[in-house]
Write a structure and sequence with these properties.
By secondary structure, this protein is mainly alpha-helical. The protein has 2 domains: 1-33; 43-159, Cytochrome Bc1 Complex, Chain D, domain 2 (Orthogonal Bundle). It has 7 helices and no strands.
Length: 165
């Protein structure tokens, strides 16, 4: 017996069922409206923003920073108003007190830390969160390479709307 056509039929039924369940839950057949997105910045605009940051973050390789964020993406979002996942949304994190997102349940260690996130705090955190802050619930092992941390932080600063002082 050939299973290809049978599997294709089951897949089609599954997609249709999921679509109908979502439509039934929303009360209409229309797709839910998403939040409007800010216009994308050009590469030149991103480089100009990056150049306004203090050293060494002004030398970040944005492509490498974005690639390193792939390690974070399963737990964090960065869009304005983005969802909290296993970890909190990171938009606007720079200059914000640790554990400041009221819609996220932080570890007691992070709530008691008293730190305000800046590039240098994040640099230390990303080296090894469990060493930087014993008691954190973040399971990320850290980024050993200093340049990778600089690139990731530079990319986060640009992508999360951080303004240089």
């Amino acid at each position: 017996m050939r299973y290809g056509p049978v599997l294709a039929a089951f897949a089609a039924l599954g997609v249709a069922a999921c679509s109908q369940a979502q439509d039934a839950g929303s009360g209409s057949a229309a797709a839910p409206a998403s939040a409007p997105e800010a216009p994308a910045l050009s590469d030149a605009e991103k480089q100009a923003i990056l150049a306004s940051y203090p050293a060494p973050y002004n030398t970040a390789d944005l492509a490498n920073g974005e690639a390193k964020f792939a390690l974070c993406r399963s737990c964090h979002t960065i869009a304005p108003g983005g969802a909290n996942m296993t970890g909190p949304n990171l938009h606007g994190v720079f200059g914000k007190a640790a554990a400041a997102n009221p819609d996220y349940k932080y570890s007691d260690a992070l709530k008691a830390s008293g730190i305000t996130w800046d590039a240098n705090q994040l640099y230390q955190w990303l080296a090894n969160p469990k060493t930087f802050m014993p008691g954190t619930k973040m399971t990320f092992a850290g980024l050993n390479d200093s340049k990778d941390r600089i690139d990731l932080i530079g990319w986060l600063m640009v992508e999360t709307g951080h303004k240089a002082k």
